[in-house]
Amino acid sequence: MSINKSDLPYRPNVGAMLFNARGEVLMARRTDMPGAGGPVTEGVWQCPQGGIDDGETPRQAVMRELMEEIGTDHATIIGEYPQWISYDLPDHLIGKALGGRFRGQTQKWFALRFAGHDGDIRLDTHLPAEFDMWQWVPACDMSRLNVGFKRSIYDQVMQEFSRFAKPAGA
């Protein structure tokens, strides 16, 4: 039986573009994609993101996702993308990714300012770990990382959030 993508809904999701005090963005490497465990130049990188639970607001979900995925919610929301952004999964992932129940995701993106210390970021608090490595990346270098099929979303969100990609208070 073939799955018709247009029959599947979008999964409600949040994305967190976390900026440090220097205006760099936290990017983490996924454990479930080719290149995980290899050199820092390999793998698929992304910002923390995840589904919205029933009864949860997007703002609550983004803070929960930070805690689950990077082990800390020491952050303050400093911006919100004005619209929801939807994307379709590539055809080869339909029926496999996202539990096979969704055609893609509709995302509400937030800009957050990190208020903790690098030591607060822990990828081992959620098992299985979603990420195996993280780094602070200058916003202008995000496009050099492999973000897979989500590149256009990252470019779109960064256009809106570029004003946060400078040192805090500048």
TrEMBL record:
Q: Which Gene3D superfamilies match?
A: Nucleoside Triphosphate Pyrophosphohydrolase
Among PROSITE patterns, the record links this protein to: NUDIX, NUDIX_BOX
Biological-process GO terms, alphabetical: nucleoside phosphate metabolic process; ribose phosphate metabolic process
Q: Which GO terms describe its molecular function?
A: bis(5'-adenosyl)-pentaphosphatase activity; guanosine-3',5'-bis(diphosphate) 3'-diphosphatase activity
Q: Which cofactor does it need?
A: a divalent metal cation; Mn(2+); Mg(2+)
> Could you name the domain of life of the organism this protein comes from?
Bacteria
Task: Name the chain's protein.
Answer: RNA pyrophosphohydrolase
